[in-house]
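Contributing: when you submit paired examples, paste them exactly as shown. First protein:
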Amino acid sequence: MEIEQIYTGCLAQGAYYIESAGEAAIVDPLRESEPYIKKAEKEGAKVKYIFETHFHADFVSGHVDLAAKTGATIVYGPNAKTEYDIHEAKDGEIFELGKVKIKVLHTPGHTMESTTYLLIDEEGKEHAIFSGDTLFIGDVGRPDLAQKGALTQNDLAGYLYDSLRNKIMTLPDDVVVYPAHGAGSACGKNMSKETTDLLGNQKKTNYALRANMSKEEFIKEVTEGLLPPPRYFAQNVAMNKSGAKGLSEILEKGNVPLDADTFEAIANHEGAVVLDTRSPEEFAASHIPNAIFIGIDGSFAPWVGALIPDLQQAMVFIAPEGREEEVITRLSRVGYDNTLGYLQGGLEAWTAAGKETDSVTSISAPAFAGKLKEEEHLNVVDVRKPTEYQAEHVEGAESLPLDYISENMEKVDKEKTYHLHCAGGYRSMIAASILKSRGYQHIVDISGGFKAISETDIPTTDYVCPSTLK
C-alpha cells in the first residue's frame, strides 16, 4: 500500500494518490490530470477511482478529464448532483482497491455532500481518513459556503458538529488525518502549517474537537470571525458540478507568444487585463501602464480569484522566461480559462518597441522611518488582513485590506500621497498596481512590509481605532 500527499502550496491544497496491488485511486485531484497519470504509469498501476470529498469552491478539479483519460469511476458522497456521470456513494459503502478498502463516511457540514473516506489496510485496520474540508489540522471547514434557501450557516455548523462526533471522533486515535487544505486556505479560519496528523492528537489540540463541547458552543466558535468568502468560490463550485474542460485545451489557447504590437492591441481593443507575474521589485522598477501585478512566486491563483471577479475575463500576461505554461496552469486551477497569450521577450521587448512604461515608487523601511520623523503627517495604509492589523500595526496607519480594496476605493483620495505596506511586500505591490491602474498616482510602496518596519524604531500599536481613511 502506498499513500502520497501531492501538496500544492499556492492553493494550500492536498490531493492524494493511493495505490495497492496495481490499482490506484486519486482523492481531490487538481485541474491538470497528467501528473496523476504519469505517477500511476510509473508505479505500474491503473487508476480505478477518483474520490471527491465535496464540490470544491477554492479550485477547479480535473476529475472529469482524468476519468476520461483513465476510465476511472468518479465517486462522490450522498447528495452530490452533477451534469456528468458519477457514482453517488451511500453512507457506509465500501470500495475495494487492490488489497485495501475505502469506506464512505458521509460527513455533512462544510457542505451537504461532504464525505470523508476511511482507508482500511490489508490487515483490516482503520489506517487513515481523507477528510476533505470536514476536518483540517487545527481547524474544521467553514460552514457558510453552502447556505441555500432555509439552510443557514448555523444549520450547517450543527451538521458538522454531529459529523465530527459521530463519524470521525469515534475512530481510533492512531488513524492518520489527511485533509484537503493547510494554512493559507480560505476554507477555514485557523489551519495549522502541518498538513497531516494523528487523529488522537487532533482530539487533544483542535479546538473544534474539544471534549464535552456542546453543540451550541461549537456553532458559536466555528461561525465566529468568518470573513466573506472570495468571490470566485461560487463560480468554482458551479464549474465542479458541471465539469470543466481539460487543461490541454486551455494551454493551446493561452500559451501563445505575442509581439509587443499584438499584445498591446489585444489589451486595448479586446478589453484584456494585463497581468504582470514577475517579482514585486521588477514591477516597481518598470511595467506596462495599467498592468495588474500578481506575482507567480506567491499565492498567485487565490489572489487572482479574489481580485478579478469574472472568470471569463480575457487576460494577456508577462511572465518570467520559461514559466508561461505555469502561469496558464495556475490560472486554470481557479477557473480562469480565457488567457489569450503572453508578451514574447517580456518587458525588454516592450521597451525595445518604443512603448511607454510606468513605475511604482518604493522606499525601504529605514527611509520610511526617516520620513515619519521629518514630516508632520503621512498617510500610511496597511493592506494586510484585519486580524493582522489588529494584532499590531504602525501607529496612525489605516486598514484597507487587499481582499476588499475594490469595494473601498472611494476611501482613497487621488490628490493625496499614500504609503502602502503589507507583511512582506507582495500584497502591497498588488494594491499599488490596482490603485495606479485606476488613476491613483501618488502611491509609495514600503519594501519589506511590516516585517522590515518592525525592525526599525517606528512606533506600533495593537489599539484598533475606527477607519477614517479618506
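Second protein:
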Amino acid sequence: MNKESNLSKAVGRKLITRVMNAMNVRTTVRAKKHNRREETEIYVKENVLNREFTAEAPNQKWVSDFTQVSYGAYGQYSARVSVVLDLYGGFVLAHNISETETSAAAIQTFQRAFNSQGNVHPLIHTDRGSAYTSKSFNNYMVNHDVQRSMSRPGTPYDNAVMERWWNDFKLRWMDKHPTPTTLKELRKLVSAGVDYFNYMYRPEKNNDLTPYEYRNEAIVSGFTA
C-alpha cells in the first residue's frame, strides 16, 4: 500500500482501516472456492429389478427402505426404521433404528444382513434416497460384489413389495400397540414386530407358511441362490 504512486506519502493498513470505518466503506471479499465434488457426489443406478418381485431362491433379491415411526408420551419424537427384506418369502434379514435416515444407518442394516447370511451376492434394490446414493454406501456395496438397482424418481411402486411390507407392519403391528414412550420401548416393539412377521405371520403367497418356514424349506432342500 505504501508504494502506491498516487499517494503523496506512505500510509499503512491501520490508517486505511480507520478512514474506511469513518466513511463506512466495506470491502467485498470473494469467497474461497472449495472442491465440493466429494460432498455432492452421488451414485445412481438403473431400475434393474424392473418390478420383477418374484425370487426363485433365498438371497437372490434383496430390497431395503426406511420408514418413520413415533414414540414419546405424546408421540412427539420420531425415529427411522430400516430393514433388508429378502424377496424370497418376504423374510426380514435385518433391521435397524436410527435417529435419522443416513448412509451410516443404511450400511449398519446391511452389515447385519450380510453377517447373518455369509458370502452372498444378491441383487439389491432401493430407492434413490441420499442414504443409498452416497459414496460411502456405494463403496460398501462394491466391497460385497453385489448388483445394484434403484427405483425411478417419484415411482414408489418400483419398490412395491417393500412399501407393502411397511404398510402391513404399521397397520397390523404398530397401530395395534400403544405408542412407545421411550426409545428403548420403541426398539423392543419394532423387534417384536419383525419377529411376528418373520415367524408367525402366514401370507397366502407363501402357501400359508411363515416367511421363515418358506425360506427354511428352500435352504434345507439346497435350493439357494
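If you have annotations for the second protein, write them as plain sentences, like these:
Residues 17 and 23 are 10 Å apart (CA to CA).
Confidence is low (pLDDT under 50) at residues 27-39.
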